[in-house]
């Protein structure tokens, strides 16, 4: 499909620079068989059915953005995928000043050797020393805000909390599973009282999620791989919910992509551990999920293509036009949509 089919105009003022307070006060655009409704995230329990199950991603964002020097050259690095105990694949700013074998000094006693430049311009960074890399990043790194926020303001102390979900336990993501940012303990309690369950899986979101689609046709785009895991107990639970007539509703496109990666043609969700580079566009037949809660995405992005596959391209274009006209806030810190095909 032509990428132009997924383009739309978004006024810059619609991009949220901070999350709603409290988190569940964010707006919620509901699209289902009854039409389109303007609500708030706190209204979610009444939009679901007893026996439904929400699936959250429990990945935790690490301070994966680094600023350093190689000689006199300033080098920026954003880690996006772990390749070993001390080795990460990273997108590099000012990469033309970097060669295989160069040492980058990130300050605070943190340094890494660059190697294995890939076709996409990324490098492997192998961190020096014996301290766990997580400790090195806590010392020298900062929260990797999405480019469309970082271009307008610096990350600050608030982001260390704002850019983590209440489910974040498994360190390894360089971007938050942002749909889950809207949830609070009070909302989870209300969902439980309404008979709506919850489960977690892990997908370590990579910085590749923000990369623009540079080709003209979706068939030519290649996704970056991300590591994920669904254990046996979780897979069994998801299958049991659907067998009993409940719906499996992914909270965030990261949860959806991992569930779909673990689902067979028979609709059975199986345990999964490894990389996925699944790319979902219109025409895809969903096998493991029955709905999605997600934020509002970039024009021409793989994520807008995904929601178009779930709900239909024309319906999503109309929904986004409605959201823009009615003042919804977009992207990572923005409002949410509940999509129930």
From TrEMBL:
Main location: cytoplasm
Localization per record: Cytoplasm
Gene Ontology molecular function: S-adenosylmethionine:tRNA ribosyltransferase-isomerase activity
KW S-adenosyl-L-methionine (keyword) present: yes
Entry keyword set: Cytoplasm, Glycosyltransferase, Isomerase, Queuosine biosynthesis, S-adenosyl-L-methionine, Transferase
Entry GO terms, CC: cytoplasm
Reactions the enzyme catalyzes: 7-aminomethyl-7-carbaguanosine(34) in tRNA + S-adenosyl-L-methionine = epoxyqueuosine(34) in tRNA + adenine + L-methionine + 2 H(+)
InterPro entries hit by this protein: QueA, QueA_dom1, QueA_dom2, QueA_sf
Signal sequence annotation: none
GO biological process, alphabetically ordered: tRNA queuosine(34) biosynthetic process
SUPFAM superfamilies reported in the protein's UniProt record: QueA-like
The protein's annotated pathway: tRNA modification; tRNA-queuosine biosynthesis
EC number: 2.4.99.17
Pfam family, one: Queuosine_synth
HAMAP family, per the entry: QueA
Family per similarity comment: Belongs to the QueA family.
Subunit-structure text: Monomer.
Function: Transfers and isomerizes the ribose moiety from AdoMet to the 7-aminomethyl group of 7-deazaguanine (preQ1-tRNA) to give epoxyqueuosine (oQ-tRNA).
Alphabetized NCBIfam families for the sequence: PRK00147.1, queA
UniProt-recorded name of the protein: S-adenosylmethionine:tRNA ribosyltransferase-isomerase
Organism: Sphingomonas alpina
